[in-house]
Design brief:
The protein folds into 2 domains: 3-194, de novo design (two linked rop proteins) (Up-down Bundle), CATH 1.20.1440; 200-390, Glutaredoxin, CATH 3.40.30.10. 41% of the residues are buried. It has helices at residues 3-33, 49-52, 70-90, 95-123, 128-147, 152-163, 166-194, 232-247, 277-288, 293-302, 309-317, 323-332, 334-348, 370-390; strands spanning 58-59, 68-69, 213-214, 221-227, 252-258, 356-359, 362-363. The N and C termini lie far apart (87 Å). Helix content is 61%, strand content 7%. It is elongated.
Amino acid sequence: MSPRLCGWLTLLLCLVGLGDAIYLTWDHFAFLADPEYGGGLCSTGSACDISRSSGASKLTFGFLSPGIPVALLAVGFYVAFAFFGFWRLREPQNRGVARLSLALAFLGIIYPIVLAVYSIVAQGALCPLCSILYIVNLLLLIVHLLGVGEPIADAFKGVWSSVLSKYTGIAALALLGTVVGGYILYSAYLDRAWAGDVLRSDPIVLVTTDRPTKGPADAPVHVVEVADFECPYCAKLFFELDELHSERPDDFKVTFLHFPLDNACNRALDRPFHKRACALHQLAECADQQGKFFEVARVIFDNQGVIEPQKMRALVDATGIDATAFDACLNSGAAMDAIKADIEQALAAKISGTPVVFVDGYKAGGAKGKAFFSGLIDRRLRAAKNSISKSP
């Protein structure tokens, strides 16, 4: 393959990959900004969970919140690679550029392979839009294998002599600048989306009688958590609310409503998604009959990697439940009836994704962090005190 053809094909593939990666970054943002967002090309149940909400969808560092979307790294990768396509056109005889392009193409195929394997193992299907990136990266590798202009072994032997060059520096700066600039915009707009005044909306009346609840019955603030046991952000939210409640046990109570994203019990889904969620929610609901809902919910969320219900059952048994009564509950169908009642209530409230939190009936979004919910609880406490002081 001629260097110029290699350059043009590189630019074309980078353009396709860039458009797809930008869309995936936006979709990740849209889901975090509003977990009920289920539209777009990555609709709920379309195997896009890996790019929207799974642990593999972002890189998390202790000093960065929110994490960096993996799709944003892909945006930076294609911007950097496009420079090599441009250089192949400008300097067709430059072996250093050809070698560096080939090395970058090899690096670009490693992470997609890891993500593809993770996607198949974790959710049983490939994310369609992610698959476009996998194909683009594979084609980039093929193009540069054909266009390197020398034996592959010789190219790799000589690549080290080309690493410390202006081309590497410019490409690295392009990648870093794209990722850093993109992350600044991403986090700023996400903060703005999260900062919306949820208390300006109309409160929604939810039936929480006999639902799993933790905290004083007469607590001044009522937090309702609508969640799915296979949702990573639901796990994050659960532990944040649990920590917040341990710090402020008298200020609010927490009620849990089931919303498994599993078409086995959730009529809103027309295809498999979280395939074991309904069974996991049954375990927790039957534990609630013994007053151990939150203990079992903690076990389930803490062991999301152990998603087989049979294996999870062994962990649940370790919480000290009465196994005979527990089995009777599972076999009776009462737990599933309660779960479906929660689902219907959530659907009536126009919920389509998880997690969703209601504070005194006001829809407050999803996993926005402990500080956000603590501040919202403070506002509701002040409103309650003002209401009391104004009463005759």
